[in-house]
Amino acid sequence: MPGAPERTTPAVLARQSAPGFRAVGLTEPDPSLLWDVPMPTDTTGVTQRDRLRNAKAPAR
Q1: Where are the alpha helices (DSSP H) in the chain?
Q2: How much is the average pLDDT of 2-10?
Q3: Of residues 60, 59, 53, the one with CA closest to residue 4
């Protein structure tokens, strides 16, 4: 996200065998990290992971 504030708090992305994810955990709530991620598609999990990385909330 352009202009996103730098984050130092981690995120947890619970992946699954399908291309999506089961859960996202954030130490600081931020709905903008989840909003408009297309579901369910073949790229849902990758899109969410990339969104967290781009916001400097590295997913574990």
Answers
A1: 44-54
A2: 59
A3: 53
